[in-house]
C-alpha cells in the first residue's frame, strides 16, 4: 500500500492550491507552475489528482471525531484539554475554534468541483450513460461521491451550509466564502502570458458568488439525485496494477456510494430508499473465500474483532481512510486520546461509555414465569464485560502509562459483583481511563491508525434500526418487521445463509438470554450484579416495544462504533424521529453534574443549539 501515497506527494507539488493555503502558487519565480491547458491531460496526473482529494479528506478526520463524539455522551474532556475542546464540550463555540471551521470541507468541495469540471470538459463521455465505462467514469464517480459526502457531513454539523455550484475557489476565496455573510469575489479564472511561464499571470473574468444556504433535506435531495443520475461507475480499479485488493476499500467504490445514499435517506426518514441501498451490503455474495463479503461471520468473531481496528480488510471495511506515518500521512487522534508521552491525553471515555461494555453479560440464564413475572429469577448471572470490543480494544485503564491486563479487569468486575468495594478500589487506584481504539497496535509516535467511514457492522446496525420501526401490510393486516431487526442484531439468520452471526452474535452475546428480546415482559437488571430489579409489561404495546428495541440498537452502536465520529448524529437522528429533543439532551447532560447539567440540558432542548454556528 506504500505506493498509493507517493502519488499524493506528486499531486501536492503539482497543484498545491487544492491541498494547501499557499497563495503564492502563481508567483512566476516558482518552477512548479503548470500551464492550465496542459494540466490533467495525462492519466498519471488524473491519478495524482485523485490521491490529492483523499489527502484533503484525511484533513477532516480530527474534526469529524471531535464534533461527532465530544458533543455526545461517550466522550469528555480531561484537565489537559485546550480551549477549543473545552468550548465544544460546553457547547460554547467561539469564532476561530479550529474544530468548528468549515474551511476544510470547502477545500475538499472546491477540489472536487475542479476535478469534476476537468473530467466533463476533457472526457465528455463521463456524461453519456450509454458510453462504455472507462477509468475516467470511475474517477468521476469518486469525485461526485466525495463531494456529496463532504456536503452531507457539513450539513449534519452546521445545520445549513452554503452551496458552491461547480466553481473552483482559490484558498483566499474559500476563506472569504466561509467567513463572509456577503457576496464574495473569486479570482480563479486564469489567462497566462504569451509563453505561459515567465510573464506575470493575469486574472480576469472575476466570478461573484452569492451564498445560497441548504438544509439537510435540500442537501439530501440534491446529492442523492446527482449520484443516482450522473454516476456510471465508482472507483478506479487500482488493484489491477498493484494486486492489492485493499485498494478497493480505501477509495470510494460502488458499495461505499450505496452506504452514503442509504445514510442520507435514513437521516431524512426515507426508509424505503435507505433499505434499497443498504441491501447490497447485507445481501452480498461477492466472495472468493468461505467468508461473506460484508457479512458478520467468523472472520472477525470474538477475539478477532480487534483486527477490524488494526487492519484493512475487504470483508468488513467498505470505505477506510488509510494513514501511514512513513509518508507523513497522520492525524491527531492519538494525541487527543493517549496518555503516553508525547501525547496530550485531552479526551477520555465517560462512565456511561465504559458501562456499555462492562455491564453486558455473557451466559446469563433466567427461569421465567411469564404469567407471573414476579416469580422470574436469575438462574445464572453470567460473566460481565465485553472483552472483544471493549477493554483493551476500544478503551483501556492505564497506571503510569502501563495498561492494566484484561485479567485484572475481569477480577475487578467480579469483585464489584460481590460488593468488595475496597478490593476494587485497590485495583483501580490512580488509573487513567483512555480511548484505546486509535492506539491499538501503535507506538506513541505513530498517529496513523486508519479511520473507518463505512464498515459492515455500522451498516448492519442501520438496517436493524430501520426494521425496528418499519411495518408492512399483509392481507389487510399491518405487521411489524421487528423480527428482521432482532435477527440482524443477534444472530444473523435474516438471510438464511447459515454463516452470519449478527452484530452481537459475532462477539458472543447473540443467543439465549444474552440476546436482545422484545417479549411482552421485559426484565430490568442491576448493571453491577445482573440481579433482576423489576420488569416492564409491554403486552399489546407495539409502539413501546419498537422504542425499546430502537434504544437497544443505539446501545449496540455505542459498543460497536464508539469514538468513530457518529454518536452525536445517532442521538440527533433518533431525537428527531421521536420529535423529542430530550432524547439527546438528557443523554448529553448526564455527563455533567449539578447546575452545569441543568444548563446543558436546557440548551440542548432547543434544536438550534445542536449545530455549530457557521463562520
Shape: globular
If you consult CATH, what is the topology of the domain at 2-245? Serine Threonine Protein Phosphatase 5, Tetratricopeptide repeat
- What Rg is obtained from the alpha carbons, in whole angstroms? 26 Å
**Between the first and last Cα atoms, what is the distance in angstroms?**
38 Å
Order of strands across the widest beta sheet? 15-14-16
Please tally the helical runs, counting DSSP H or I stretches of 4 or more residues: 23
> What portion of the residues fall into strands of 2 or more residues?
5-15%
The average pLDDT score comes to 88
Count the E strands. Answer: 21
Which architecture name of the domain at 2-245 does CATH use? Alpha Horseshoe
Explain what the structure shows:
With 615 residues, this protein is α+β, with helices and mostly antiparallel strands. It has a domain at 2-245: Serine Threonine Protein Phosphatase 5, Tetratricopeptide repeat (Alpha Horseshoe). It is built from 23 helices and 21 strands. The strands form ten sheets. It has a three-stranded antiparallel sheet with strand order 15-14-16, with no helix packed on it. Helix 2 runs antiparallel to helix 5 (103-122). It is globular.
Amino acid at each position: 500500500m506504500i505506493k498509493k501515497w507517493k502519488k499524493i506527494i506528486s499531486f501536492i507539488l503539482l497543484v498545491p492550491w487544492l491541498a494547501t493555503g499557499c497563495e503564492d502558487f502563481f508567483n512566476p519565480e516558482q518552477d512548479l507552475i503548470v500551464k492550465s491547458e496542459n494540466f490533467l491531460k495525462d492519466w498519471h496526473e488524473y491519478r495524482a489528482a485523485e490521491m490529492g482529494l483523499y489527502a484533503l479528506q484525511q484533513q477532516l478526520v480530527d474534526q469529524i471525531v471531535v464534533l461527532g463524539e465530544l458533543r455526545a455522551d461517550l466522550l469528555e474532556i480531561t484537565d489537559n484539554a485546550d480551549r477549543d475542546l473545552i468550548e465544544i464540550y460546553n457547547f460554547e463555540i467561539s469564532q476561530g475554534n479550529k474544530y468548528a471551521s468549515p474551511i476544510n470541507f470547502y477545500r475538499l468541495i472546491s477540489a472536487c468541483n475542479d476535478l469534476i469540471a476537468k473530467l466533463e470538459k476533457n472526457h465528455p463521455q463521463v456524461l453519456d450513460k450509454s458510453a462504455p465505462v472507462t477509468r475516467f467514469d470511475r474517477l468521476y464517480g469518486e469525485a461526485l461521491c466525495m463531494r456529496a459526502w463532504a456536503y452531507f457531513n457539513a450539513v449534519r454539523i452546521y445545520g445549513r451550509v452554503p452551496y458552491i455550484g461547480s466553481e473552483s475557489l482559490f484558498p483566499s476565496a474559500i476563506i472569504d466564502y466561509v467567513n463572509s455573510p456577503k457576496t464574495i469575489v473569486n479570482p480563479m479564472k486564469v489567462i497566462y502570458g504569451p509563453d505561459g511561464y515567465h510573464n506575470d499571470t493575469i486574472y480576469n473574468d472575476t466570478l461573484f458568488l452569492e451564498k445560497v444556504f441548504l438544509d439537510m433535506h435540500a442537501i439530501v435531495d440534491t446529492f442523492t439525485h446527482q449520484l443516482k443520475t450522473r454516476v456510471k461507475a465508482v472507483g478506479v480499479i487500482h488493484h489491477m496494477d498493484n494486486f492489492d485488493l485493499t485498494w478497493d476499500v480505501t477509495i470510494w467504490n460502488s458499495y461505499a456510494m450505496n452506504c452514503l445514499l442509504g445514510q442520507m435517506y435514513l437521516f431524512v426518514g426515507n426508509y424505503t430508499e435507505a433499505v434499497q441501498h443498504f441491501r447490497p451490503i447485507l445481501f452480498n455474495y461477492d466472495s472468493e473465500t468461505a467468508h461473506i463479503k460484508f457479512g458478520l461471520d467468523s472472520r472477525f468473531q470474538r477475539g478477532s474483532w480487534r483486527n477490524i481496528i488494526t487492519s484493512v480488510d475487504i470483508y468488513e471495511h467498505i470505505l477506510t481512510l488509510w494513514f501511514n506515518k512513513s509518508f507523513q500521512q497522520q492525524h491527531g487522534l492519538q494525541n487527543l486520546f493517549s496518555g503516553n508521552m508525547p501525547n496530550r491525553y485531552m479526551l477520555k471515555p465517560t462512565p456511561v461509555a465504559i458501562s456499555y461494555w462492562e455491564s453486558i453479560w455473557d451466559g446469563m440464564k433466567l427461569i421465567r414465569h411469564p404469567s407471573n413475572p414476579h416469580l422470574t429469577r436469575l438462574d445464572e448471572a453470567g460473566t460481565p464485560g465485553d472483552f472483544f470490543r471493549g477493554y483493551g480494544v476500544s478503551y483501556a485503564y492505564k497506571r503510569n502509562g502501563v495498561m492494566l491486563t484484561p485479567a485484572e479487569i475481569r477480577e475487578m468486575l467480579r469483585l464489584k459483583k460481590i460488593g468488595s468495594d475496597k478490593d476494587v478500589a485497590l485495583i483501580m487506584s490512580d488509573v487513567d481511563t483512555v480511548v484505546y481504539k486509535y492506539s491499538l497496535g501503535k507506538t506513541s509516535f505513530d498517529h496513523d491508525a486508519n479511520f473507518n467511514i463505512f464498515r459492515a457492522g455500522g451498516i448492519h446496525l442501520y438496517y436493524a434500526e430501520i426494521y425496528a420501526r418499519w411495518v408492512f401490510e399483509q392481507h389487510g393486516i399491518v405487521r411489524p418487521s421487528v423480527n428482521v431487526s432482532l435477527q440482524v442484531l443477534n444472530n444473523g439468520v435474516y438471510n438464511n445463509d447459515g454463516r452470519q452471526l449478527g452484530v452481537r452474535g459475532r462477539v458472543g452475546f447473540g443467543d439465549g438470554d444474552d440476546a436482545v428480546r422484545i417479549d411482552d415482559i421485559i426484565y430490568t437488571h442491576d448493571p453491577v450484579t445482573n440481579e433482576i430489579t423489576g420488569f416492564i409489561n409491554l403486552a399489546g404495546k407495539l409502539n413501546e416495544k419498537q422504542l425499546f428495541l430502537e434504544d437497544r440498537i443505539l446501545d449496540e452502536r455505542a459498543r460497536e462504533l464508539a469514538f468513530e465520529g457518529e454518536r452525536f448524529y445517532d442521538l440527533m437522528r433518533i431525537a428527531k424521529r421521536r420529535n423529542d429533543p430530550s432524547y439527546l439532551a438528557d443523554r448529553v447532560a448526564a455527563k455533567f453534574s449539578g447546575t452545569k447539567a441543568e444548563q446543558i440540558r436546557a440548551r440542548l432542548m432547543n434544536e438550534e443549539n445542536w449545530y455549530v454556528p457557521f463562520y
